[in-house]
Amino acid sequence: MLYGIFVSLFIFPLKWRDLKKDFTQHLACITGIGYLIWAIVAQNIDKPRHILPLVILFLFIVLINVLRETKEIRKFVLSIFCCLLLISQTYHSSILIIKQANESSATYQLSNYLQSLDQPAIVYAWEETRVLQYMNSTIPYKKVQTYQVFLHDKSYYQNRKILLTNKAVEGFTGQGIDLTGKLKKNKRVSF
Length: 191
Prior knowledge:
elongated; three-stranded parallel sheet; 6% strand; mainly alpha; 9 helices; single chain; 60% helix
């Protein structure tokens, strides 16, 4: 919401002819448009985090324009606000990058846990199957996105331990399925 207010304050004074005069802004716009196309075509559009770098790029363009014309007090205050947003975003992003560098992702942790199981099992996942395939998981896994398909398919695996990822459980709950008392938490992975 904060970004929405910020964008609405600057979207009207921002003019395309001003952007075309400055090579830095022109390059930032071209980069932003290229990234937007890549994010829409090559990324999972269900995850808004893939668009977040565009926010920082947009703030950069706005900041350049605002700092160029700081004669008005409103623009000066908003430029300070823009700088604080950029600093805050950079700080929080750096913390997440350090955390990601030092910890395995939840799907990698899941794959390692599955390798340590001593009994036959099958994993039903919502979106993690791509990484499990990449990790060459020896435990069978299936992508399932409806509760009815899960109920039908699990009947084929009576002699195996049935495991569900949290995303699958959240997906079933989102479909109106009440799983209260039907599940037992087996292992928790983080990040």
